[in-house]
Amino acid sequence: MNREIAHHTVTRIVKWFGPGTAWWTNRQGNSWDPVTACTFDGVVAGSDGEYFAILIQVGED
């Protein structure tokens, strides 16, 4: 995805959920817990207690 479009999309999601949102990721420091069969993946999930958003990035080498 185009970087500018991705940034705009994430900014809108974060603003929509607001400051009380809980966020989680599969990344811890320089490592991560895989959630897909791809070589690399990254997940960010958020919830305001009513709605959920899940952003997934995957890559192969």
In short:
This protein has 61 residues and is α+β, with helices and mostly antiparallel strands.
Please provide a written account of the structure:
The chain is of the alpha+beta class. The protein has 1 helix and 5 strands, in the order αβββββ. The protein has one helix spanning 3-17; strands spanning 22-25, 27-28, 31-32, 40-47, 52-59. The strands form 2 sheets. A 3-stranded antiparallel sheet has the order 1-4-5, with no helix packed on it. The protein has a two-stranded antiparallel sheet with strand order 2-3. The model has no long low-confidence stretch (mean pLDDT 92).
- Biggest sheet strand order reads 1-4-5
Helix/strand order: HEEEEE
Q: What Rg do the Cα atoms give?
A: 13 Å
Quaternary structure state of the chains depicted: single chain
Q: Name the shape in a single word.
A: globular
Q: Provide the β-strand percentage band.
A: 35-45%
Number of H/I helices: 1
Unreliable runs: none
Mean pLDDT: 92
Biggest sheet features: 3 strands, antiparallel
Structural class: alpha+beta
Helical content class: 10-25%
Ends apart, CA distance between termini = 18 Å
Number of strands: 5
Furnish the topology, listing elements before pairings.
Elements: H1 3-17, E1 22-25, E2 27-28, E3 31-32, E4 40-47, E5 52-59
Main attributes of the structure:
alpha+beta; 25% helix; globular; 61 residues
